[in-house]
Design a protein that fits this description.
Elements lengths: L11 H25 L4 H13 L4 E2 H8 L3 H13 L3 E5 L7 E5 L1 H23 L3 H29 L1
Antiparallel strand pairs: 1-3, 2-3
């Protein structure tokens, strides 16, 4: 078991400031990663969802709802990803009007090669946490993501 170092006290404002720094750094990093892969951030995000789905292939509509774009916009995203060799479209076995999106293994390997060194460092960082700290972080991130999604939806409702 790993010993937990003592942490200096922090205010909620300091924690939110650190979170803002993390998010900004990740946003800039995602842009740079996307450029290295010949994609834009939205296309890379969609491809990330395709990878995450694995063998449970997503439909174009699934992707559109996850990234909050129109069906026309997701068609453009899929066209670009397909032309770039990142995905293939497969007919939905249960609904011939729909297609499912599959990741191309070579593209998955390229993305993993780019992100793997970073994720290894994140794993090392988490290895320094106690199981309770890791559980807290996992729950906090999930709750914060849910809060962010809810707030985005509230803003969209205001726009309608």
């Amino acid at each position: 078991m790993t010993a937990t170092p003592p942490y200096p006290p922090a205010t909620p404002a300091q924690a939110l400031s650190a979170m803002d720094d993390l998010m900004a750094t990740h946003m800039v990093g995602q842009q740079e990663m996307a450029q290295r892969l010949g994609l834009n951030v939205t296309d890379l995000t969609c491809f990330g969802y395709v990878i995450q789905a694995g063998d449970d292939l997503l439909s174009a509509g699934d992707l559109a709802s996850r990234v909050h774009v129109t069906s026309g916009a997701v068609t453009g995203i899929l066209n670009r990803l397909e032309r770039a060799g990142y995905i293939t479209r497969r007919p939905d076995p249960l609904d011939r009007r729909r297609v499912r999106v599959a990741a191309e293994p070579d593209a998955v390997a390229r993305v993993h090669a780019l992100y793997e060194p970073y994720y290894l460092r994140l794993h090392e960082l988490l290895a320094g946490c106690s199981p309770a700290e890791t559980a807290f972080l996992a729950q906090w991130f999930a709750k914060a993501a849910g809060l962010a999604a809810t707030y985005r939806e509230e803003l969209r409702q205001q726009d309608r």
